[in-house]
Amino acid sequence: MESVFRGVAVYLVLLIVVRLSGRRTLAQTTPFDFVLLLIVAETTQQALLGDDFSVTNAAVLIVTLFTMDILLTFLKRRADWLARFIDGVPTVLIAKGEPDWEAMHRARVSLEDVLEAARVGQGLARLDQIDFAVLEVSGGISIVPRGE
Predict the structure, then answer these.
(1) CA distance linking residue 95 with residue 131, whole number of Å
(2) Cα distances (angstroms) measured from residue 21 to each of 3, 17, 32, 34, 71
(3) Which positions ≥6 away from 35 have C-beta within 8 Å?
(4) Structural domains present in the chain
(5) What pLDDT digit, counting tens, does each position of 74-114 carry?
(6) Which residue has the higher pLDDT, 30 or 117?
(7) What's the CA angle centered on 88, arms 14 and 10, to 5 degrees?
(8) Which pLDDT does position 94 carry in this prediction?
(9) Which residues, 6+ apart, have CB-to-CB distance to 101 below 8 Å?
(10) pLDDT tens, 55-70?
């Protein structure tokens, strides 16, 4: 039973940490992020297993983690506030061609990030070509080009 409690606790801690780290972290992985992920994975493994490295304990933990994921998915469908808390909501970064510097600062997104998304996704080179830029819950940036 201790393994189940460990699994639930580690799942919730990781969920909170990933949520607080911001959506851009999920969309852009740097070498630093990759190294951090490896360290977190090793630390998580130790926290989950403790001194019990048995196959049975591993199976209990796997079932626990998947059960937590399924349960949260079900709860998010039933409670919009929980979905907004866990997944967040889209953030408008540029509206009518004007950057929202406060929203960009909160989301830790630079103007260069937005312009890169505009170049890659829409072939746009300048800020004045962007009508809207939205940071999606997935961490990607959607660009709506300005109409001619």
Answers:
(1) 6
(2) 27, 6, 14, 14, 23
(3) none
(4) 2-87 (no CATH), 91-145 (3.30.240.20)
(5) 999 999 998 888 888 899 999 998 999 999 998 888 999 99
(6) 117
(7) 10
(8) 95
(9) none
(10) 888 888 888 888 998 9
Specify the pLDDT at position 19.
76
Point out which residues pair with 134 in neighbouring strands.
Answer: 92, 142
Residue holding tokens 């039973």?
1
Q: How far is 61 from 133, CA to CA, in rounded Å?
A: 40
In the block, which residue shows the tokens 């990607």? 140
- Separation CA 32–CA 86 (nearest Å): 24
Residues 15-25 have pLDDT tens digits of 888 777 766 55
Q: How many CB atoms lie within 10 A of CB 108?
A: 13
Alpha-carbon gap, residue 93 to 26, rounded angstroms: 17
**Two structure tokens written together for 134:** 């939205």
Measured CA distances, 70 to 26, 40, 63, 77 (Å): 20, 22, 10, 11
Tokens of 4: 């189940």
Strand extents, DSSP E, 12-66: none
